[in-house]
Every structure is written in structure tokens, then in C-alpha cells.
């Protein structure tokens, strides 16, 4: 825990200077991460073969988003000390002194309980239970345990970010099937190369914070190898998903193009050394990171399109 | 007696208070909407089933 929580004088000084605004509390919920949660949960909900009342669907997505936000607030409460050290996170509400750690804890706990109970009431107990498990996994397993103890933190912790489409699917169907597991696996396998690319070009952040990222524990050469290996596995999974019931011709076309680009990016990262990367200010690594964002949104977008076509009975292959 | 002078604290916290107010209003709207949809879609039908059975037996 941080000395933000153990230094009352510093807290009091900050509190007297600034009154937290609503936007500061909202920032605790990690809105940018929430967009990923909302979108993938939305796809899981609509890709499911059981139609959902639009208002129930809206509420389900809202409660999943609130649950994701609550886990973000609890993450910021616990990680305030390392957030204060890292440039990328130093402006977050707690390290910048805009919100007190106790407030973040209270908001996180309250919204966690609210979101799980209301998701269960609006849809079913399985969806509510999965959301509760996701929050537990992200906060306790990833944030409190793995993040500071193992370089595999991102690999195992990535499961927390992969649950939303499965929760969306469960909210619609009341069960978890192979399609939901495939969507889970897609995000799960995507997470390590995404974060390791970030760790390569935010080079001093994790060192300074003493977070055992792969770049710190195994070196940057090893991280480049890991990115390539995980990207190959991810490409096989992503293209293979195209031949299941959530895939189709549009998904396959999108997956083929993006996976070729992603593999090329991973190969380029693998071939480079630190001298080359520093010479162009990590241009390739940054491009790969940006592409990874498009990669996930495009894959889930394609699943959504395929679900829409199936819902309206349009068979593109049958048209030829 | 009403508050004659608005304290500076109220001005600083206006945005936060408006945000909390809107959040509470949205919460009420969501609970109301869920209730209407759940009743309309017959999600509470199972709870009514024994009563219908009792009526039939009574006849």
C-alpha cells in the first residue's frame, strides 16, 4: 500500500486544496478500459442465440460496465503507490491527490456489490456470479497477488479482461457454451502481446515501480520473443474461431488481414534490438500497440456483424 | 429560514452534486424500467402459477 494512505498530513493538505469533482470519481472507473468491457460484453450478448429484450440488454451491459469500473477503482486504491511512481499513471485521481484512497475503496466496494446484484436480478444468477468472480479475479488474484509477484502477471491476469463477452453471453442464455469460451480465449491470448509491447516503449515505468514485468525480470530480448510466440498462438486461435458458429466469411476476412498485419508487427519487433528501437523512438513497438487495439475491436466487430447477419437470416456463402 | 448566502463550498461542489443527483435519477429510471419490462414479459408468471391452480381446484 502507498504512503498516500499512511501519510495523513499529505492527505489533509491535498484535501484542503481540492474538492473532488464528479469527473474525478468517474475517472476511478477507468473509462477507457470500460469501452473494451462494454463493447466485448455487447458482442457476447448479441452473438448469443437467445434474443434479449433491448432494455434488459442495455441494463446488462450497464451493470457489466459498472462492475468493470468498480474493479478499476479497487485496483487504483490498492496500486496508488506504484501509480504515483509511473509516468503513465501518475495523473490518476489518487496519486494526483484529487480523490482520497478511502473514497476509492468505498466506491469500488459499493459499485461491485450493486453491479453483481442488479445484473443477477436483471438477467440471471450465472451472469451475476460471473461478474462477481471477474471482479474478485481482477482485484484479488491479479492486483493484490500476481501483479507484484510474477512476470506472468499479465498472462494470468488477462483472464479478468476476457470475461465480459462470456458474461454477456451468459446474461442472454443463462449458460456458458463453447462460443463464449472462444471469445474469452481471444481476449485472453491478445492481452500479453498488447501489454508487453506497451512495456517495451514505456521502458522505465515498470522498472521504477518495481513491478516484475517480463521486460524487468527476463530482459527485453526475451520479451520480444514472447510477443512473437503469443502472437502466433493468437493468430491460430483467431483464424480458427472463424470456422465455428460465431465466425463466418466476414469474420474470416477480417481475421486473415489483421492477423497477417499483427504477425508482421510481432516479427518486426522480434528482429529489432534496443539500439534500433531507440533510434526511431520505438516506432514499431508503438505501431504494434496501436494495431493491437484495432485488432481486438475489429475481431469482435466482425463477430457482431456475423451475429447480425445470422439474426436476419442472411447467408453470404449461400448467395454465391 | 432559507440559506441567504451560498457558501463557497457549495459552489465548489456544485458539479459533484449535480452528477450524484443525475446518477440517482438514472438509477430510479433503471429500476422502474426493469420492473415494467419484467412484469410485461411475464417473468413473474411462475409466482402466480400456484394461485391459478388453487382457483381451478376451488371450482
TrEMBL record, chain A:
Keywords: Cell membrane, Heme biosynthesis, Membrane, Transferase, Transmembrane, Transmembrane helix
Spans traversing the lipid bilayer: 33-49, 55-78, 127-146, 153-174, 180-201, 227-244, 250-270, 291-314
Designated name of the protein: Protoheme IX farnesyltransferase
Subcellular location(s) of the protein: Cell membrane
Protein family: Belongs to the UbiA prenyltransferase family. Protoheme IX farnesyltransferase subfamily.
Taxon lineage: Bacteria, Pseudomonadati, Pseudomonadota, Alphaproteobacteria, Rhodobacterales
InterPro entries reported in the protein's UniProt record: Protohaem_IX_farnesylTrfase, UbiA_prenyltransferase, UbiA_prenylTrfase_CS, UbiA_sf
Pfam families cross-referenced by the UniProt entry: UbiA
Originating gene: ctaB
UniProtKB/TrEMBL annotation, chain B:
Domain of life of the native organism: Bacteria
Keywords annotated in UniProt: Membrane, Transmembrane, Transmembrane helix
Transmembrane segments: 20-40
Name used for this protein in its record: Cytochrome C oxidase assembly protein
